[in-house]
Amino acid sequence: MSKRTLITLFLAGATIVLFGVWRARAPETGSTAVTPDVDTSRTSPTAPVSRPPVTSAANHPNIDSPAFPPGLQPGPISTLTQTFEKSDNLARLVSELAPRVAAGDTEAARVVAQALDECAHLSVFPNFVEGIRKSAEAMPANRRDAALAHLTRFQERCGDLAGAEKITPERIRSAHEAASHGNDLVDQGRRLTASSASMSASEVKDSLRRIVQSRNGEAIASIADAMAESSDDRELFGPYSGSKVHAMAWRLVACDLGMPCGPDSAQTRQACMVFGNCIRGDYREVVRFFFLSPWEFELAAAEERKILQEIIDGNFDRLFP
Amino acid sequence: MRTLFNGLSQLLALLFIALASPSALATLNCNGPSINVNQAPYNVLPAVQNQNVGAYDEDVLRTNVMTAVVARYRIEHGPRSIDPGKTFKITYKNRTKECGVVTGLTGSVAAVPIPGTRRDAPGDGMAVENTSVYLRQFNQNQANQLHGTYQVCYDYYSNGELTATQCSVQVW
């Protein structure tokens, strides 16, 4: 065999080997590996699928929980809110509250509006329950279990109410309207969040101090979104404001002070039924896993601790100077 | 060489589609964020994922989809990232689209469709105009922020030239 033939054979062999190596590597580089515990439903058809970080809330539900400052006394949560949270049948609750709403009880009206908000999707969308069930099938096992548990409770609470009437935008607006004439702290917080621009600086600060001083978790939750006002407004909303991280920190403070945020709370369930963000755990887990990045969550938890400490120390003028 | 050929043929195909279907060239500018429900995180919303709501479905369905989408947008971008009075464009699952206006910060009715802005999916209709939609005024009921009016204007363009402007007052 000539030297030239040997070189040709060697080059041909090398080409075949290199081609084989390239083919073997191609599936790894050309497509994305999908692992069974990845929630593929969260990704768009075109977006690359990635595994959640190993320190995610789904895997370690209790990791990084903030140290709860000692000496914190949560404020009162109204009986009506507790009744709403525990209700197994919101249609019955709405009907029981009807005379109070007619008599001008704005807190009762607020609970009716909350019930309609909670059940609206079930009333409006065809096959809503089947849709959630189908989505749950694509979730990792622990999240699927949470989704199905939320769904069962949702059907129990909303089945009759959604079946009795189509919950139209007009119906919801009129329910919220009946609730809007009150003057308790939750109403004040909502009004402040919706229209702080039309209030004077002293009105805003007085209102914020009053709400936070009350340690009423529900009222504090109602101002949480206002605390995301842009940094230009920090002077108005205090040093713990200016971004979505601050808004989330205030929501977590509201939870610490008694706002219902447990695994079976309306708020946690709504994250699953409205956003598809279902997870085993309480509202804090929802925020940690779905709403903030790990770094943002760390920042929010740090702000939460500082705010709680200011409340414990009674430094309301430092919160809203 | 082969890659070059593939790229060239794709480009030609796109060009053909664009020329053959005038609506593919039509644009709708809602002067606000564009939200495509086919993309994460909107594609997992229960109002979207296993539902088939499009721009030509009844108002109540579109209002529910818009409200859920706007609430999710706020989680991503911040609670005050899209306040009442802001407009946005929504592309539905079937790729029909329309403009919406934010009417509230909370609750299950916090965004509504803007009449006259529905558009077919690319390639479906014969609409050729480019439209820019914007609000001139947005008023909320001072007492409860639950009702209000807005003045919406539509600028129609053809070949880059403004051909007509229409304005109307809508109640929400």
Features of the shown structure:
heterodimer, A: 321 residues, mainly alpha, 0% strand, B: 172 residues, alpha/beta, four-stranded mixed sheet, 2 helices, 8 strands, globular
Molecular structure report:
The complex is a heterodimer of chains A (321) and B (172). Chain A is an all-alpha fold and 321 residues long. Chain A has two domains: 78-181; 183-321. Chain A has helices spanning 3-30, 79-86, 90-102, 106-124, 128-137, 141-164, 169-179, 185-195, 201-213, 217-223, 234-237, 244-256, 266-275, 283-291, 294-313, 316-319. Chain A is globular. Residues 18-63 of chain A have low confidence and may be disordered. With 172 residues, chain B is an alpha/beta fold. The N and C termini of chain B lie far apart (58 Å). Classes of the chains: A mainly alpha (321), B alpha/beta (172). At the A-B interface, helix 4, helix 5, helix 7, helix 8 and helix 13 of A face helix 2 of B. Chain B: Keywords: Signal. Chain B: Residues 1-26 form the signal peptide.
